[in-house]
Write a structure and sequence with these properties.
Blueprint (H helix, E strand, L loop, with lengths): L3 E6 L6 H15 L4 E4 L10 E6 L5 H11 L7 E4 L6 H14 L4 E4 L3 H21 L3 E5 L13 H8 L2 E5 L1 H10 L6 H8 L7 H27 L4 E4 L3 H5 L5 H9 L3 E3 L4 H14 L4 E9 L4 E6 L9 E5 L9 E5 L3 E8 L6 E12 L7 E7 L6 H5 L6 E5 L3 H7 L2
Parallel strand pairs: 1-2, 1-3, 3-4, 4-5, 6-7, 6-8, 8-9
Antiparallel strand pairs: 10-11, 10-17, 11-16, 12-13, 14-15, 14-17, 15-16
Helix pairs in contact: 4-11, 4-13, 6-8, 7-8, 8-10
Amino acid sequence: MARISLYTLTSPLHDEQAVEAVTKEFLHSLNIDFEYRSADYADYGSAPLSLIYVRTGGTEGVFRQLLPSLLPKSGQPFYLLTSGKSNSLAASMEILSFLRQQGLKGEILHGSQAYVSHRIETLARVGEARQRLKGCRLGIVGEPSDWLISSVYDASVVREKLGIELVSIQMEELLDEFHALAQADVSEEVADLSAHVAPLRRQDATAVKDSLNDATRLYFALKNIAERHELQGLTIRCFDLLTAVRNTGCIALARLNSEGLVAGCEGDVPTMISMMIARTLIGVSGFQANPAHISTETGEVLFAHCTIPLAMTERYELDTHFESGIGVGIRGYVKEGPVTIFKTSGRLDRFFAAEGTLEACQSKSDLCRTQQVIRLSCPDEANYFLRNPIGNHHVVLPGHVKELLEAMFE
């Protein structure tokens, strides 16, 4: 679990021994490992999660005097933990009201032991994710695809709010890297992939096998670029590859995502950022896809795309790329079960998160190769896609993680 620092606020009017006894009993009941800092706020804000334990009433003025020294140290909301004993809840409410008046964020952590412990664990995971995001470098290889007319982003906002640096990389650099790789360099990798070619017509199967060399060279070329620019993720204007090298980036992105490097399609920066957030929170980039069919009555949404992280699949087949019929696309089959649909805007001023169930994986010939039928837990949320979507691409994540994602944007 992420490191949690605990600081205290105590009124001098209360008996210290009695307060300490309540403190020990309360903290023990939460069953969480705290780094107990008492009233020493010197390193406040350095841990993934800093909690202020309001132990008694009469601490409002103490906090007001302390606040100017805390503000420069923490970019997170002020989390006020209270047992409710000795008027601590009343004091916490006064403090939170004061914070709101100053335009600052905060929350009181109070309630049952189960609720408070779970909430602290959630906030600690989010705090740890935020720390991992700071200093991340995400590459944009080529410009965003021409049809992504709403998928704009603000690099300065992304840097300020998440600490992520967006790095522009010319498509020519990728092509130079690709051409520098000899086919012999990838022969062993291609042999392993050949076993996954789908049972297609002889002509199509041959075309896929013939394309595996160049698809694998693209993987190594992107990997080399990521290392050169010290990237933790990237997105590529992949449709340009159809004319430049008569192939796709589908294999490359599927493998890079499985190896821990976030890799997105079509130069879609907001989706890449969404995938990076997901990876820091749950360790998976997710399946970048767009809806192909939506039922607002049932909440059923069909998502499809021609690549998916191989690590997310139970098995996969290699087919041609859907729109072009050339190169290599991936038909991935994923275990049925709980999923979450997620997307943030490129200015980080909006996000969408909805939970559902992956009910089936399809393999229809008239859609992108990986196809997932997902039924949203709340059917009404399907209206979002038709009334106020954040672009077309969304990220499908394993498990129900809406609470974590929501906490990330608080």
